Structure prediction request, 218 residues.
Amino acid sequence: MDRIILENKSILLLLEESVEMYKKYYQYEKIDGTSRKIVTRIPENAFREAIANAMIHRFWDINAFIRVSMFDDRIEISFPGGLPSGMSEAEYLDGQISMIRNPIIGNVFYRLRYIEMFGTGIKRINKSYHNSLTKPQFKVYENSITIILPTVLSIASLTSEEQLIVQLFHGNLKLSRPEIEKQSHYNKAKLIRILNSLSDKNIIDKSGKGRATKYQLR
Prediction:
């Protein structure tokens, strides 16, 4: 994709130009008979919230950019500055405490309705993926935060075999390959192929090694 550096512009213009770039790559028009509809591969609300979140929580007193990396299957938004002092990662992800590093920017975004309420951005991003098998990821580091927005994926888009395996994880269970094999009645080779496919689609995660290996929905 194109490499574009947006700088020396107002924050509001930067946000809107970022959204226009997003629309160029992740929205397209589909004609169905006589009607047209916009198909969105990554929720626009999630992208707007992630960009606003980056601007509200980033460090502005260091020479570093907010980096938006657009891939075919995801968008990664990274911004300088870890969590505000006194806020834990769990509190940031749950929106339990509203600590804004840049309150003036936060107030402007709130008044212009770019955000709904302080401290609700992460919840709104997650809500945008309510009907998707793929989910956003939030990586919190000491000096930066990265928000990963995957392309949406419905269960109807999976093969019948993949759907059956996904349904076995209902309730966010962690299952070993032998356990999945027993419940699905698929042989080892076929099951490994299906699990690898679901992993490539960012639907399941694998943890552990050897006999301790477990699978679960991402």
